[in-house]
Amino acid sequence: MSHYKTTLHDEAATQALGKSLAHTLVPGFSIFLHGDLGAGKTALTRALIHAAGHPGHVKSPTYTLAEPYGILLRGQPVTIMHFDLYRMSTPEEFLDAGFREEFNASNICIVEWPEKAGGVLPGPDLNVYLRVAGDGREVELHALSAKGIACLASLQFVPNL
Questions:
Q1: How far apart are CA 60 and CA 129, in angstroms?
Q2: 0.85 exceeded by the pTM?
Q3: Residues 7, 108, 66, 111, CA torsion sign
Q4: What are the pLDDT digits (tens) for 112-158?
Q5: What is d(CA 10, CA 21) in angstroms, rounded to the nearest whole number?
């Protein structure tokens, strides 16, 4: 499966999707999150990072651009890098900050507002599109690699129960 679409009727459903995605993570995985302000990108990321094993506060890196979170993934230490590129003016800022090196075989990278980095980002394994729909959200997940396809194939998510 390379595509999945559903409606998230409330924040609890967004959190449930984040938790489900956390169980599919592997080192070297990257997720790009697309959507307008308030679409739920940070809420989804926060739920994913907590479900992956980070017990502390997960803040939006709106001003710092990146926040690392150390977790154990199947007994192995892994860093989840959470990027929020909303405040970037140019793609060169991403390169100048040295962020491209974080996209490697060891880290998991989650990027909000990837379009702000233009063509300097490595391609994602999974694109997630969130849209406000009434009180809820429409979400589409598109796998773009073998890792992304494996993620969607193993995703165990039943929304809105």
A1: 18
A2: yes
A3: negative
A4: 999 998 889 999 999 999 999 888 899 999 999 999 999 999 888 76
A5: 17
Provide CB contacts within 8 A for 53, sequence distance 6+. 71, 72, 73
| Cα gap 24→28, rounded to integer Å | 12
Rounded (5°) CA angle 125-23-6: 70
Which pair of structure tokens corresponds to residue 101?
């090196």
Pairing relationship of beta strands 3-8 and 136-143 according to DSSP bridges = antiparallel
Give the other-Cβ count within 10 Å of 57's Cβ.
8
Residue 149 has which token pair?
A: 């396809």
- Show the tokens assigned to 11: 């924040």
For residue 137, the SS3 value is strand
Residues paired with residue 7 on neighbouring β-strands, in sequence order: 138
